[in-house]
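S1.2 Input.
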Amino acid sequence: MKFKKTIKKLKSVKQLKLVFRLLSKLNSRRKKFLSRRPHRTLRLSKRRDYRKKITLPGYFSLTKSTHQMIWKDKKLFAKLLAVYATMTLLFIGVASQDMFNSLSDFMKETASKISGGDFGSISQASILTLTTVAGGATQNLNELQQVLALFFGVYVWLTTVWIIRNIINGNKFNLRDALYNAGGPFIPTLIISLLLIIQMLPFALALIIQTAAQFTGFATDGAEAMLLWMGTGLLIVLSLYWLSATFFALIIATLPGIYPWQAYKTASDIVTGRRLVLLYRFLWVALLVVLTWAVIVVPAVLINTWLGDVWPLFRNIPFIPILILIMSTATLIWVATYIYLLYRKIVDDAAKKS
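S1.3 Output.
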């Protein structure tokens, strides 16, 4: 009996030691986390912790550097775009031309209700472009096509980052080398991409709420409208707050031996105290993308509509769906290049100061 009691005491002592070690590890991690993050929820931060000084090139300067980086190796990036567009056409397809023509005819019938004159045509083309890009002219994709779309998008991101990194490092390579070697960190990048999609849910919810409110006439004025805008605004800010770190995590995840959570933790440390400055950069990228699409795609829709009226056979050519596919790929390549250069500027600036 005494032996059994002794064994039980030893087991209880071991369990207590294990619990104590676990608590010690958790407390140590908590202290390290708090040391990296000087800001506290609902507490006024001290001035010395308010901002991490960072020296970055101007908005136009970094944009110019991105253009120069791509233009310098334009043949390589053009091949990458052609490969991805071809694979997408073969395995996924593009928006249905018949559905696009139906949307175009519907917009013509309702154009007079939107506005008149030349501005009416521009409004019609803009709404038609937004509807097509949002998937209004796309047939329902099956599960395999959805998986392939996500796979191609992640792989284009990985290939672009691999190419830019090797260009900066001065390595010689071709597109085949990039396609064969860029897929190593595919799983970590895929996991972070799924996290990015989840973080976009508050933004999507805000759009759904606003759209429903507009159609139903709910909260169109007064205190209800103010509360609605405040609520949806907070949802959008929440998504932007999360995404400011996730974009850098997508870059860090491409480094050898980096796991997804480690990449996200490192990215969160990088943006701490700099989140607002970096958020302005991401909003600048979004503005440039919107303006570029407006300058290229909207006039193309107008020309496509005019040629379709003059030459009815032209309506059977999927010109706009193919253009949207090419623009989507080019946008992904450009955004990946911009974010990678921004990330390198931050890392280089930190290395100089240390």
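S1.4 Remarks. The CA atoms of residues 34 and 40 lie 9 Å apart.
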